[in-house]
């Protein structure tokens, strides 16, 4: 909530002091930032009657000097170039410039140089440089996310860009929250260390004046971890509502695009899934599939009641009541159709891809089970004709991650089988994954088999039995968070940056996963936050992952690694 | 949340850079007062001389309404004509709001028990309600005028202005209807209350003649009251109907909150796709027309005509 309201406050402040008709100009990144927190109707109320992208606005020559232009851009060199061109050929009456992060002096110089007609009224930095998709969740949605996988020597300039964007985003989050954190990072990950050190440099040295907020006794904790410490979570099939929609259909900036899934009425082709605006979604986003079905049925029944009473219009009073309630009714109708469509689509996909079967094996691989049984199960599924390629790849990867050291012969067999079955499989992807995220590379105890305490805990859980086979997996993040709550996060695994040490118990923890977050982890965070442990957790990442996205990152990284290996 | 204002630094750079540029000396415009920014009007003129391909109309220069915070004068052109229409509608909305407040007061007054006839009150209420409904209707008609065609940026602005005014109008009409229906309900209650009193009087039957006369009078005036209230109810119902119609028309224009249409990025994309679609449709139309059967037929017929003519001439010549 706090992140969403911070971004909303920024947008409100941008618009409130400027009277008259306005036009809001955004770039491709800030469009996402603003769209998830502000709606079109709210913009209209603030008299913003036109919203444009900065690259399309430069193509038009129409002069609209009765409008005042409000620009909200990221301070990239490309945007500065666009701005310069627009300032030298002004179309609007006034210009108000807002940038989502810190401007360099040279950039201000360039802008001042082009502002010959002195039409720029203000230049401000409003640090809304992250997409606040959910309460307690933000993402940077980086297009080339795969650079975190590669070592620095392979492509230093792109990796530097990646780091810069991550550090900018983190800095913006803390400026929006007005805090300066203590930073810890995951020991085995070079990229996490790099991001952590650069963020510390930014907050404590370069811009220490900007970050010097009122010192409370307890600074928040920023923990930077690497996706490769837990490669299992993005590979699993999900069964809770939000995560499932993202896994099977895909969510972008809280919008779901259903256009590819057959014939749907026009208003259902693209829908919005936002917990702020949709009460049903908010109540059900972390529920599992079976419960959702029941809740939707209840919602449909309620709606049918209302619809029936609406059809029974006999007196003037009834008509008046109908007209009164019509907007509500329409909204309810839209909402009900949206959820029914989504669930129908997902059921169809589950049926087609036999996901119940696949997921059962996946959960076994991720949580417990012996090696022999696992090998058999995976082989059977690989032989099954109905299983799609991505599911086969997923299964082999999960098996490899768990049993990489045991019985390499069988592992080889699986690889060969996978290669023979899946035409599109790029050979060596699984091995690449193992190289990057194998047991030697990971911090933390992914399978709970490294120290006695965890083994005991696992056995206890096995004996107790699980409530639901399909949702028994708990991401590694949960263990990390529990250690933080108990104050026992090991220094050895997660060292501090600099010499700021934790005094007392933190109350606010921001976990930044380099490489991307998953909705399953978000669910764990939401559950922990709701359990009143005294600590508030916020999750953020360079992207939001599902299996497809994770595999794409791996493939792209593999291609680059291979081409560079050939060159060298 | 933290922000940082770079305007001062920006202005410093801007002034510094300006003094580095070619100084504007002899171009006299003595009548124009120098503002703090160093005579921007002069600069305007000179830059337009220096860069003749700059094309914008220096209409009104020192527009005090627009310069804020001691900033420099800004060239403001005249806004397009439809802005007048939107401002008119906005003014109507404002007027309707004040009248609604008055109506609320009148309702309250009419509902208070009074000894007088109450006809005065009814008339004011009726008049007010009528006025408001007229205002809303008029605004709604004018609103339709704001619709624009063509995928220009101006048309987007118009569409958005239209949407916002439509939602304002819809809210107002809903408010009016709610007020009227509560008034109606309270009226009804009062009427029943009076009937209750009537009943009571019936029960206490031992009356003298004088009282009976009084009672007759009361019954008579009660009939009148009942009729009055009924006619009021009818007028209120009428306006409810009218408003229902307006709401239906408006609901097409208003955005539903929380749907995809309410998303900023969807609207931006939509503009782009509509423009592209429009282009595609045009191209398709052009192609179909070129390949059109009509054109073929016409050409064939013309050729046939010529052929026949030639044949005719040949026939005449040969025979």
From TrEMBL, chain A:
<dbReference type="InterPro" id="IPR043154">
    <property type="entry name" value="Sec-1-like_dom1"/>
</dbReference>
<protein>
    <submittedName>
        <fullName>Vacuolar protein sorting-associated protein 45-like protein</fullName>
    </submittedName>
</protein>
<keyword id="KW-0472">Membrane</keyword>
<dbReference type="GO" id="GO:0005794">
    <property type="term" value="C:Golgi apparatus"/>
</dbReference>
<dbReference type="InterPro" id="IPR036045">
    <property type="entry name" value="Sec1-like_sf"/>
</dbReference>
<dbReference type="GO" id="GO:0016192">
    <property type="term" value="P:vesicle-mediated transport"/>
</dbReference>
<dbReference type="InterPro" id="IPR043127">
    <property type="entry name" value="Sec-1-like_dom3a"/>
</dbReference>
<keyword id="KW-0653">Protein transport</keyword>
<dbReference type="GO" id="GO:0006886">
    <property type="term" value="P:intracellular protein transport"/>
</dbReference>
<dbReference type="InterPro" id="IPR027482">
    <property type="entry name" value="Sec1-like_dom2"/>
</dbReference>
<dbReference type="GO" id="GO:0031201">
    <property type="term" value="C:SNARE complex"/>
</dbReference>
<keyword id="KW-0813">Transport</keyword>
<comment type="similarity">
    <text>Belongs to the STXBP/unc-18/SEC1 family.</text>
</comment>
<dbReference type="GO" id="GO:0098588">
    <property type="term" value="C:bounding membrane of organelle"/>
</dbReference>
<dbReference type="Pfam" id="PF00995">
    <property type="entry name" value="Sec1"/>
</dbReference>
<dbReference type="InterPro" id="IPR001619">
    <property type="entry name" value="Sec1-like"/>
</dbReference>
<dbReference type="GO" id="GO:0031338">
    <property type="term" value="P:regulation of vesicle fusion"/>
</dbReference>
Automatic annotation (TrEMBL), chain B:
<dbReference type="InterPro" id="IPR000727">
    <property type="entry name" value="T_SNARE_dom"/>
</dbReference>
<keyword id="KW-0611">Plant defense</keyword>
<dbReference type="GO" id="GO:0050832">
    <property type="term" value="P:defense response to fungus"/>
</dbReference>
<dbReference type="GO" id="GO:0000149">
    <property type="term" value="F:SNARE binding"/>
</dbReference>
<keyword id="KW-0472">Membrane</keyword>
<dbReference type="GO" id="GO:0005802">
    <property type="term" value="C:trans-Golgi network"/>
</dbReference>
<dbReference type="InterPro" id="IPR006012">
    <property type="entry name" value="Syntaxin/epimorphin_CS"/>
</dbReference>
<dbReference type="GO" id="GO:0043001">
    <property type="term" value="P:Golgi to plasma membrane protein transport"/>
</dbReference>
<dbReference type="InterPro" id="IPR010989">
    <property type="entry name" value="SNARE"/>
</dbReference>
<comment type="similarity">
    <text>Belongs to the syntaxin family.</text>
</comment>
<dbReference type="GO" id="GO:0098629">
    <property type="term" value="P:trans-Golgi network membrane organization"/>
</dbReference>
<dbReference type="GO" id="GO:0048278">
    <property type="term" value="P:vesicle docking"/>
</dbReference>
<keyword id="KW-0812">Transmembrane</keyword>
<dbReference type="GO" id="GO:0006906">
    <property type="term" value="P:vesicle fusion"/>
</dbReference>
<dbReference type="GO" id="GO:0031201">
    <property type="term" value="C:SNARE complex"/>
</dbReference>
<dbReference type="GO" id="GO:0006886">
    <property type="term" value="P:intracellular protein transport"/>
</dbReference>
<keyword id="KW-1133">Transmembrane helix</keyword>
<feature type="coiled-coil region">
    <location>
        <begin position="86"/>
        <end position="149"/>
    </location>
</feature>
<feature type="domain" description="T-SNARE coiled-coil homology">
    <location>
        <begin position="223"/>
        <end position="285"/>
    </location>
</feature>
<dbReference type="InterPro" id="IPR006011">
    <property type="entry name" value="Syntaxin_N"/>
</dbReference>
<dbReference type="GO" id="GO:0009658">
    <property type="term" value="P:chloroplast organization"/>
</dbReference>
<keyword id="KW-0653">Protein transport</keyword>
